[in-house]
Specification:
10 helices; mainly alpha; 12 strands; Endonuclease - Pi-scei, Chain A, domain 1; two-stranded antiparallel ribbon; 381 residues
Amino acid sequence: MTREIDEIKDAAGAYRKWALEARKKYIELRLRQDSEIRGLYIRAADRVAKELRKLALKTPSSYLRKRQLEELEAALKVEAERLAGNLTKALEQYIEQAVDAGGGYSQTITLDLFKKAGIGINTTGLRTMFATVNRQAVEACWARTKKGLFLSDRIWKQEETYRNAMRDLIQEAVATGQDAVKTARILQQYVRQGAQTLAKDYPNMMKRMKGRIPGDISYEALRLARTEMTAAFGEGTIAAARVSPSYIGMKWVLSKSHPLTDICDDLAAHDEGLGRGVYSTGNEPPFPAHPNCLVPDQVVITAGGNVNIQDIAIGTKVLTGAGNWKTILGTSKKYYKGKVLKLTTKTGKQIIVTPEHKLATQKGWAEAHTIKRGDKILVFL
């Protein structure tokens, strides 16, 4: 962290204070959004649980019948739509605030330069210009597609996932003899603590489900929000910088806690004559570089031999894409439910990754889903 801060200070020079303030705003947003989004899911589940308890009062045995399940399906539909609406509102706020945090740095520098130069310029006009740039950056975030889906489409998928998971849990709870009150508690436990706790407390029910529900119902929404907010911060930073008369280029700073050599190292090593990691106007790389992962049983080459990535420990030396050894400084695990790709080479080597994971090819770094038969990828014997 200290090296990262020092590099930001060096790159920003006299404006280091404002650069660090922009970074602080971004980090505060990131810290706040996770709890807020989890809160949306918890409140949605609590409202469904409340409906379940109401239905329990309508039947003497507290066990749900077909008519009550039909009523509950209607309530689930309403709740899923409300959740999607709340997610949309939250992302609108996060994206606007992230763009503002990124663009605020260049705006502050520009206003300060005109003030120091003693140029009698209407600052209201400058502020309006930057506000326009920020608005365009926000629009660009919502217009960007991923696998053909706009951000609004991906939010809708969260609604569908939530509704299906809640329905499946309720149906299985009823099928295994749980009454409405117990079912309500199951829903609330699942959203707060995840599927693993249900597997411990209700093994028969979870065995019947065979992994049909996500381990963490809010994970995909959290992942979506993190990625989009980070992209918005980058969009705002670059868009505002490009209209600043003092802008020369943008530097890609690599965090010291970055554990493995990947595309981020290439971006930080870039040199077009402005200095290591500095990109000229119009040549800035998109941000974030790689929000995705390797699967748990993907083999990694370590100093002690081949090891599944899920078994890698802090302190292990691993062979990187650059052909050198690096020590693991930190690890992270995330729940992922979705498509993975298996790439097989002529020699039989296999790599299993999420579709957006970037791999080294003969043409440079490329997302796995764009790699075609006949392309060459970097592997180790």
